């Protein structure tokens, strides 16, 4: 943001300020899911995205109170610690920022307000049944005016709206860049600079540093308060530390896993969601879901962390996993091998779910490696056979959804769900000593990739796939990791070339930001940006381990990109 800052705090009506005519309106915001507008106000809920402004630094939530008679207090945005930034030009002028605090019910305690990094007000309380207005005169920090609202421990702030005014001729500017729209989303092969080993190390470092810089004020990575969305950033940080030796990344992953373990329920399970004010008895979070699919992603991350942890953390992690497996995972496996999802959105689902089966297999594989307990080996093997048999000869998948007992045939590029299934098959292939099981899962994976309507056939320009919604696309960033694992065994050179191109695509910000990789949480593609970057980090790490770390020159088509470029 820069370090040049000039601030004059002006509580409305209390200090002299330039005449109103000295400022022109730039933006008027009404925060909340529904809002109130006369046609000149921007209604801004937490899902709003605009390159010129947005929330970063912390998780925020919409609120609405239909019993509130004051239209300016009926809704707003609440959070514990978050920043809202607005891009402005010119940067060397004075601006006037007005904040409208929300209702006293949502903000029962005092908050602190920062402009950029400077504390400008503290002990600020909300008023009953009226908006409280605070006004500040601000010199931008670099290209933006930013305000940060920070509540006390286990408290929240509530903000109903904001207004920014500037000098004559001032305008809003983009501060959250997207992929370059003039650059095609899947460029021809010969337009890519193919990444080499040094470049891939740089890419993994960029992914890890982005996760550290952009993680939220609660030290987590989900804008939605979902545990599973933290699992892939955690795994990326652990992999980056393993390959690049940066203990701070490992420590950040452990800190988050410690919080996860501490939230284990008396029955051995976890809730799938959490409140950003973790550790507060007044903020239990969303208790509607405790499903095996979501929690399985986190137990896998926890299991992978066990060998990296020292005592007593290692034993604590191991005990939590064993307790979960024995009381939740194994009892919810069906006779045919599939796993039930169980409670999601207050409904209990007792038929097989492909994603739950995938995440449970992966966890059980690693847990067997940790404990040597044959119960976990058996459960993972039976489930892997069930999962492998869902892959059809043509590359499509007989997918068992979470909300009904009948399967549906889905295409090979439905990455939002299929990723978890194929990752499970890769875990089994690299672990099992049962040759027949290994052949079965290898063949299933190969059908997915090489079938008549498999990944290779559907790939655009020989290496990538069309983009859809951001939730699915976040997993798309992890598909190269799966194909890198496939290269552990003999494979056509054309598959190795395909993976090279994919890794190069992920390294190019003009391209990868389109699916959220290294995209600010406030960017148009940033809703799952932290998750997508976690997946991309796993792909970079797998590339270093299984592709560029082995027998590749790193110099196929188009030249090479390394540290100096």
Round the mean pLDDT to the nearest integer and report it: 89
Pick out the low-confidence regions.
1-20, 550-565
**What share of residues is helical?**
25-40%
Number of strands: 20
CATH class of the largest domain: Mainly Alpha
Measured on Cα atoms, how large is the radius of gyration? 25 Å
Most strands sheet = 8 strands, mixed
Category from helices, strands and their pairing: alpha+beta
Question: What's this entry about, in short?
Answer:
With about 575 residues, this protein is α+β, with helices and mostly antiparallel strands. It contains 15 helices and 20 strands. The chain folds into three domains: about 5-170, Jelly Rolls (Sandwich), CATH 2.60.120; about 180-220 and about 460-565, no CATH class; about 265-460, Glycosyltransferase (Alpha/alpha barrel).
Describe it for me?
This protein has 565 residues and is of the alpha+beta class. The protein has three domains: 6-172, Sandwich (Jelly Rolls); 179-218 and 461-565, no CATH class; 263-458, Glycosyltransferase. It has 15 helices and 20 strands. The strands form five sheets. Strands 1, 2, 3, 5, 6, 8, 11 and 13 form an eight-stranded mixed β-sheet that branches. Strands 4, 7, 9, 10, 12 and 14 form a six-stranded antiparallel β-sheet that branches. Helix 4 (292-305) packs parallel to helix 6 (354-371) and helix 12 runs parallel beside helix 15 (529-546). The protein is globular and about 75 Å long. The two termini are 25 Å apart. Residues 1-20 and 550-565 have low confidence and may be disordered.
């Amino acid at each position: 943001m820069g370090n040049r800052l000039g601030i004059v705090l002006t509580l409305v009506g209390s200090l002299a300020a330039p005449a109103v005519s000295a400022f022109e309106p730039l933006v008027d915001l009404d925060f909340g899911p529904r809002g109130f507008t006369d046609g000149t106000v921007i209604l801004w809920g937490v899902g709003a995205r605009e390159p010129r402004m947005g929330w970063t630094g912390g998780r925020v939530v919409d609120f609405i109170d239909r019993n509130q008679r004051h239209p300016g207090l009926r809704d707003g945005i609440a959070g514990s610690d978050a920043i809202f930034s607005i891009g402005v030009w010119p940067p060397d002028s004075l601006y006037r920022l007005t904040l409208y605090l929300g209702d006293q019910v949502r903000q029962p305690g005092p908050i602190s307000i920062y402009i950029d990094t400077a504390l400008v007000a503290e002990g600020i309380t909300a008023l009953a049944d009226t908006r409280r207005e605070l006004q500040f005169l601000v010199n931008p920090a670099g290209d933006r005016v930013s305000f940060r609202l920070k509540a006390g421990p286990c408290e929240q702030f509530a903000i109903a709206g904001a207004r920014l005014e500037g000098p004559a001729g001032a305008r809003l500017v983009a501060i959250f860049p997207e992929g370059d729209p003039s650059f095609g989303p899947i460029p021809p092969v010969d337009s890519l600079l193919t990444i080499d080993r040094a470049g891939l190390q740089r890419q993994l470092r960029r992914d890890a540093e982005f996760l550290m810089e952009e993680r939220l004020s609660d030290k987590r990575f989900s804008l939605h308060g979902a545990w599973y969305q933290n699992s892939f950033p955690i795994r990326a940080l652990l992999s980056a530390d393993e390959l690049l030796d940066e203990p701070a990344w490992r420590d950040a992953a452990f800190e988050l896993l410690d919080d996860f373990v501490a939230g284990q329920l008396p029955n051995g399970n976890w809730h799938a969601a959490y409140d950003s004010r973790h550790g507060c008895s007044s903020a239990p979070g969303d208790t509607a879901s405790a499903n095996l699919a979501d929690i399985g992603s986190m137990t896998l991350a926890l299991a992978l962390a066990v060998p990296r942890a020292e005592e007593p953390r290692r034993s604590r992690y191991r005990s939590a996993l064993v307790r979960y497996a024995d009381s939740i995972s194994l009892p919810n496996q069906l006779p045919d091998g599939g796993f039930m999802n169980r409670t999601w959105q207050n409904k209990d689902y007792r038929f097989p779910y492909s994603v739950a089966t995938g995440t449970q297999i992966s966890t059980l594989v690693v847990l067997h490696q940790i404990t040597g307990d044959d119960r976990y080996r058996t459960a993972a093997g039976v489930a892997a056979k069930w999962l492998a048999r869902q892959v059809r000869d043509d590359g499509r998948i007989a997918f068992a959804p979470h909300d009904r007992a009948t399967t549906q045939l889905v295409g090979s590029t439905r990455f939002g769900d299929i990723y978890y299934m194929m990752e499970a098959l890769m875990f089994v292939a690299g672990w099992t000593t049962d040759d027949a099981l290994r052949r079965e899962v290898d063949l299933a994976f190969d059908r997915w990739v090489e079938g008549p309507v498999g990944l290779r056939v559907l790939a655009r320009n020989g290496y990538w796939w069309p983009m859809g919604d951001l939730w699915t696309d976040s997993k798309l960033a992890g598909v190269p990791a799966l194909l890198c694992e496939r290269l552990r065994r003999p494979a056509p050179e054309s598959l190795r070339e395909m993976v090279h191109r994919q890794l190069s695509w992920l390294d190019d910000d003009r391209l990868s930001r389109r699916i959220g990789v290294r995209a600010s949480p406030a960017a148009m593609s940033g809703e799952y940006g932290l998750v997508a970057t976690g997946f991309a980090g796993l792909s970079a790490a797998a590339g270093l381990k299984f592709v560029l770390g082995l027998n590749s020159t790193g110099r196929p088509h188009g030249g090479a990109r390394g540290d100096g470029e």
